[in-house]
Amino acid sequence: MQGLMQHWPLTVDKILDHARHWHGNREVVTRSVEGPMVTTTYAEIHERARRVSNALKSWGVGTGDRVATIAWNTGRHIEAWYGIMGIGAVCHTLNPRLFPEQLIYIINHAEDKVIFTDLTFVPLLEAILDKCPSVERVVVMTDEASMPQTKLPRAECYEHVLAENSAECDWGGFDENTACGLCYTSGTTGDPKGVLYSHRSNFLHTLITLQNDVMGASSRDTILAIVPMFHANAWGLAFSAPAVGARLIMPGARMDGAAIHELLETEKVTYSAAVPTVWQGLLQHLRQSGGQLTTLKKVLIGGSAVPAAMIRAFHDEFGVEVVQGWGMTETSPVGTISNLTPELAALPYEEQIPWRTKQGRPPIGIHLTLKDDEGKVLPQDGVAFGRLMVRGPTVAGSYFKGVGGQILDDEGYFDTGDVATIDPTGYMAITDRAKDVIKSGGEWISSIDIENIAVGHDKVALAAVIGVAHPKWDERPLLVLKLHEGVSGDKQEFLDFLQGKIAKWWMPDDVVFVDDIPLGATGKIDKKILRERFKDYRLPTA
Amino acid sequence: MQGLMQHWPLTVDKILDHARHWHGNREVVTRSVEGPMVTTTYAEIHERARRVSNALKSWGVGTGDRVATIAWNTGRHIEAWYGIMGIGAVCHTLNPRLFPEQLIYIINHAEDKVIFTDLTFVPLLEAILDKCPSVERVVVMTDEASMPQTKLPRAECYEHVLAENSAECDWGGFDENTACGLCYTSGTTGDPKGVLYSHRSNFLHTLITLQNDVMGASSRDTILAIVPMFHANAWGLAFSAPAVGARLIMPGARMDGAAIHELLETEKVTYSAAVPTVWQGLLQHLRQSGGQLTTLKKVLIGGSAVPAAMIRAFHDEFGVEVVQGWGMTETSPVGTISNLTPELAALPYEEQIPWRTKQGRPPIGIHLTLKDDEGKVLPQDGVAFGRLMVRGPTVAGSYFKGVGGQILDDEGYFDTGDVATIDPTGYMAITDRAKDVIKSGGEWISSIDIENIAVGHDKVALAAVIGVAHPKWDERPLLVLKLHEGVSGDKQEFLDFLQGKIAKWWMPDDVVFVDDIPLGATGKIDKKILRERFKDYRLPTA
């Protein structure tokens, strides 16, 4: 027997419709790519997004067609985003930090028909688009006065296009499982893989993140969306802020400490979200400038592990609460959040730190489990570490065009590729990437745990631990160190530094010093290259 | 093109699964019907609910079968609720305050196979069940020691049933549009009509209410769920509290001021929800006893209009924020909420009152509009009042078994039967029930507006305004007054009291004094009876 409630497909056009109708005057403030601050409203964004839709329709873009954006967080980017999605086309956010060859691969794989770009990325597109035959048109998101001379074929000026198109457009009317967004994983192994979000998954992700114990945005918040829309959908902020009518501040191209601080203060921001490196820049700036944070209450930090020192600095020096989140492109992205249970919240602050540095607990709609290599579920005792597996309506079921084949296990879980523990209070902590775990005599050694300790040594600039072949143990850990400029050291002092801080059998079998440690497009250490470089390294213990 | 996210039907069994796994030790505390306080946890409730499922299966209850409850808010009621829903049966909450004939009608219409009852309602069921042939079994929710002698055929003792059944049971596995809950409207006009919720609508309602700007429950909250589960699903609390792992306090049969105050204080409640009469009882008790509210932060009040005096009393005397909600059985029930926009929140408290006394704004997922009798959309100017129409995935699309026929208009809106205004800031205010509006010369007069003013006169105990036939104006208002015990007055003094407070043409054409004003099962004035009584009344102006 079916229930008898209204048929109301969960499509994201309804989010901006809601914002226009019930929060129409709420501001969206952008530090524009051209320079000046630009203030608009949800009502204006709604109107302009419909002009985008009509332009796309006039160019023959329809349901299921991919339309890319390569752009900073701006009001115009939100307009393009909803203009694309509202007519059932797929908004494909391109990460401009990728290497040109990766961008070419992704654009061709997605078969993008139109690309919306900021001025910043016109030269980048000029350099690659002759290798991307699907792209019929590029829309430069600027006004006519700022429109550059470009050799891009069929380049359109955004403001000119908007002026030429009507604001009357019917949105929605399609099934909620219709594709809505496309985002490729950075792909440290193999080719990039596309996650194809549906309207339903994005709408549900919005509701999930709006819970008090997740991101909990309110119409009384002013949110600075630092995390880019091309980085896992800005953690959903381009949906959740309009859904509740939160005032939204978009930082455009400038994410240095001084620029962020200026926005936080002048726009009276209450909530923000970004990766640790951005906050590191802000904290450095504040210490140098003596600046304060007078309105900011809470920051969500994710993308990589948040150091305890950062949590303490925000709390002790600036009275700002840090909440850590974990997620990935494949999880829309919110997977867990480190909001405190009542028992932990009642502890003295310093005693909360061990939980605040974990990645947190899943909200309703996400289920996590740990499995070993044989698919056996591991205990949630905070000690056993295994593959982190995740299920839910906002989690990828397969990749675009079937790349990677079947990606769910028999029980429908997606393998995150992370290795983690979950403690008895339900807090998950990422221990390592599965491919970076060192398998020594059938037991697992976490490369990240060792790196995190090693990097605490005064002389160390960067530390990486990789597994190297060993005749007896299969693999043993090798510690690769880049020391600070002009500093030298000997192997033993770094091994001594680790002594007592890790299990005896986790001790690296050797230490090597390098001039540089390779970093990937997202700023993480590229261990694939390191492993390749040291694949024939002979350990002294071998 | 379809998105490629995981298939994960929104079924409510997953809510209790989540609570068990991630908030398993969180307490559910009940003032039991037998007397003592009983503490259980979400993990225990989950286990016991599965025993309920197995009992139902052993009795031949399957997907789509209706299983009723007639019960107070208790931990056992939650177990029965999930035990029924988890296997795809339909949980039909019976309102024990209905007249016996209404209960018989509803049970027969629903064709309930099993009824779970509290001890309180055994005599009531004994009196009516011989007229309800579909009911095969009654489960008395008590332990064996407290099991009464009863002439009910096939009466089962709940704890005995649980002990006999296994806790192993697979839940879910059905379509998210499967029927999940059934609740009949009290039906002041015509027969009661059944609203048939789906798993999807209840799951989405849960997420919608968990937003910060709606009910915003957190795992750090202790929630006293006063509003009954038979009254529009306890406004969703039996879903939303476990979904976030909030500690849940269930008041059982006692809802007097002293009992509620005791629970609020001993259980350290932070949030609660109930109708105005409950809060009136609490405030009276607090004033008489000198009691304080030391942990309560916020109360949600709905079901009927919240007087400004109640909002002020909570704020000024006890430091508790009142949030008003509006909804109905047909809206799951949350429709609007009077949380303040940032502009209003910035006003001095006294200036916020005009908005706090309105019913509020809709969250994402609910859309409201005002239409006149011809279906024309009216302006949201705070002045025009029209039929309040509502759309969304948590709103009824039709009634059980097609009663009432097509209930949506051409645009898919459900007519709430309320007449309302919506002001430019989006705040909806109920003006009247559509059937109580007085249509005078083609214009509408709000009976409630006049009543609210009249009841402010010192001598007035109850006031009702009804339309009476008039040869020239079709209808004109008649003011029906019940004065306080031992008090008398003349018509003119009450008309003088209204003078200047309402439009001249709204002034009642006459005043009549009565010894009693009839109230319906939900405590509201029964205007149908009043209109019948005065249908031949000749106005002096006629």
Descriptive overview:
Two copies of one chain form a homodimer. With 542 residues, chain A is an alpha/beta fold. In chain A, 28% of the residues lie in helices and 23% in strands. Chain A has 16 helices and 24 strands. In chain A, the strands form five sheets. An eight-stranded mixed sheet of chain A has the order 2-1-11-10-12-13-14-15, with helices on both faces. The longest helix of chain A is centred in the first third of the chain and has 17 residues, at 42-58. The first copy, chain A, is globular and about 70 Å long. The mean pLDDT of chain A is 95. At the A-B interface, helix 1, strand 9 and helix 7 of A face helix 1, strand 9 and helix 7 of B.
Condensed summary:
2 copies of one chain form a homodimer. Chain A has 542 residues and is of the alpha/beta class. Helix content of chain A is 28%, strand content 23%.
* Quaternary structure type: homodimer
Helical residue percent of chain A? 25-40%
Mean pLDDT of chain A: 95
Number of strands of chain A: 24
Largest inter-chain contact set: A-B, 74 and 74 residues
Q: Termini of chain A, distance in Å?
A: 67 Å
Strand order of the largest sheet of chain A: 2-1-11-10-12-13-14-15
> Which regions of chain A have little confidence, pLDDT < 50, spanning 5+ residues?
none
Largest sheet of chain A: 8 strands, mixed
Radius of gyration of chain A: 24 Å
**SS-based class of chain A:** alpha/beta
Query: Which term fits the overall shape of chain A?
Result: globular
Question: Strand fraction band of chain A?
Answer: 15-25%
* Count of discrete alpha- or pi-helical segments spanning 4 or more residues of chain A: 16
